[in-house]
Specification:
InterPro entries: Smr_dom (IPR002625), Smr_dom_sf (IPR036063). This is DNA mismatch repair protein MutS. By secondary structure, the protein is an alpha+beta fold. The chain contains five helices and six strands, in the order ααββαβαβαββ. The N and C termini lie far apart (about 170 Å). The C terminus is likely disordered.
Length: about 250
């Protein structure tokens, strides 16, 4: 019996041939799908780029056409107008801005008030003076006791002015200014030295009478009388101003 031949009495065995295992289905399918998806994405990108390029080209063409149209309009306008020359305009003059001078409003009001209240030389105080050896004055409505106290020296003299030797106009202005300043300072009792007139022509006390006339015309003055001998006697008067005098009540 030949070698390797089965014995007739042995059963036949099936020959088993080893076959390689088939590849998995999923990986094979994946290798087929992925290239298709990539190609589709590239196609969409290509289409988008192409559309963008076409849009830019349309915009460039439209801008060029608009520029050509504007240039043609400008050429037509220049042909219709012809040659022109610029108008020779003179240079503008620069005007300096100088502020207006300040107006002394308060000074003007003060001056007007002074003129309004100016005391006159033509006023005769004899109708208002109490004629005695001292010639005193008391404003209507003020008690005579005020004059008696003024004579006794119940009020202390707080300020004085010496008009002796001044001319009449100078003395009048100086007296008016003295009273205004005293009222502003809140003073009550003043002394006005006018002299006895011994040095004037004819030895007449001209300034003495004028001072009394000026004082009567001042609304701030409520009383005055001749000074006591040791305060000047017949050469001065003691003046009492209205009470409560302050800068708010003073007249310029």
């Amino acid at each position: 019996m030949p070698k390797n031949q089965p014995h007739p009495s042995e059963p036949k065995r099936a020959r088993v041939v080893a076959q390689p295992a088939p590849a998995a289905a999923v990986p094979a399918a994946r290798t087929k799908v992925e290239p298709a998806a990539g190609l589709a994405g590239l196609g969409a990108l290509r289409d988008a780029l192409k559309g963008d390029a076409e849009r830019r080209e349309r915009e460039r063409t439209a801008a060029a056409a608009k520029q050509r149209e504007a240039s043609a309009d400008a050429d037509l306008f220049r042909r219709e107008i012809g040659a022109v020359a610029p108008v020779a305009a003179p240079p503008r003059a620069t005007q300096p801005r100088n502020p207006p001078p300040p107006l002394p409003v308060q000074t003007r009001l003060d001056e007007e008030a002074v003129l309004h209240e100016a005391i006159s030389d033509e006023f005769d105080p004899e109708v208002l003076l109490d004629t005695d050896e001292t010639l005193s004055y008391c404003r209507p409505g003020v008690s005579q006791e005020v004059v008696r106290k003024l004579r006794r020296g119940d009020w202390i003299v707080q300020a004085q002015i010496d008009l002796h030797g001044m001319r009449r106009e100078q003395a009048r202005e100086a007296l008016a200014e003295f009273i205004r300043e005293s009222v502003k300072r809140g003073l009550r009792c003043l002394r006005v030295i006018h002299g006895k007139g011994l040095g004037s022509i004819g030895k007449e006390p001209v300034l003495k009478g004028k001072v009394r006339a000026w004082l009567v015309q001042k609304s701030e003055v409520i009383a005055f009388c001749q000074a006591r001998p040791h305060d000047g006697g017949a050469g001065a008067v003691v003046v009492l101003l209205q009470p409560g005098a302050s800068p708010a009540h003073a007249k310029s």
